[in-house]
Fold each of these.
Amino acid sequence: MVKKLQKLADKQGAATGTPSVAQLFDNQFASSVKDSAQQIWQAGLGAFAKAQGEGGKVFESLVKEGVSIQRKTQAAAEEKLGEVSSKMTKLSDDVQARAGQQWDKLESIFEERVAKALGKLGVPSSKDIDALIHRIDALSANVARLSKAPAARKTAPAKTAAAPRKTTAKTASAKRAVAAPRKRKA
């Protein structure tokens, strides 16, 4: 219905030469939109000019803030890194100490088993060898002292040769021990 009335008004306005209400309304609306668009454009140009003028200052202030924040985060990160590093060092030392204790325990068990096996085979231990060395040293000292002692009696003139005596294994080994003292190994 509205369209019919507008068409009718347009026909009458065209015949008389005066604009219709719709045409007047459309012209006012169009000019209003045009003025509004013009103002928006001018506001944008003003904002751009202002941003261009103050943009350098704003950029520099943003850079300063960024540097400040970077320093703070680096300091915090270095602090945390130091804490983590000290904790890792402590943990490493603890693990190393525990491993050393376990290694010492394993080593002592191994030494005990080897000593037991050597004992079963009849191999003397280092303690046995040390005791023998001390005993040999004492015997060597006694032999040296006895060989330096002056003869208490003079030997009697030789009698006729007696039948040779049989030497026992015990006296033969004693003679060898006196004749050639053993050298100690260093």
Note: The longest helix spans residues 21-121.
Amino acid sequence: MKSLAVNGWTIYAHPMFWEKTEMLAAKVKRL
């Protein structure tokens, strides 16, 4: 599992959640 640090917290993300997060990040980078 991947971990994401948010505001000092470490979140262990679900694979499906990570796919959505990466897709959103890709959209933001295009803007």
Note: The mean pLDDT is 76.
Amino acid sequence: ATLKFVKAEGDGWDCVADGQLVTCDAAEVLKAGDSAAFMIETAVTADPGSIITNEAIVSTATAERTEDNNTDTAEIATADDSAQSLGQAPRSPVAFTGANSIKIAGVAFLLMLAGAALIAVRRRSTGGSQR
């Protein structure tokens, strides 16, 4: 089992769990276009880095025109061992994801100085006039 049932709640819902299966029944009938919500809370028991697949199925006692929209699944990846727990200090410094900007700025500054020096030498050799 990858999840352990903790609780389920929602206004007008009666929910019971049997192992990995949680069944929730609405106290009132929903009309076409109506919606209702409930929350199921679980604890993750899967190994780090695992994929958990949740499946939700809705049904009704009355006939439906289409039943192909009554099921949905969602896959959720659990955090791997390197993930941070909330409230813990970072295990390592912030990840370095780019070039060292100080070095790039230094090279750019040196190139600007070299360009200015070349312009000064050129002006001295031509006496300040342009050809």
Note: Residues 3-77 form one domain.
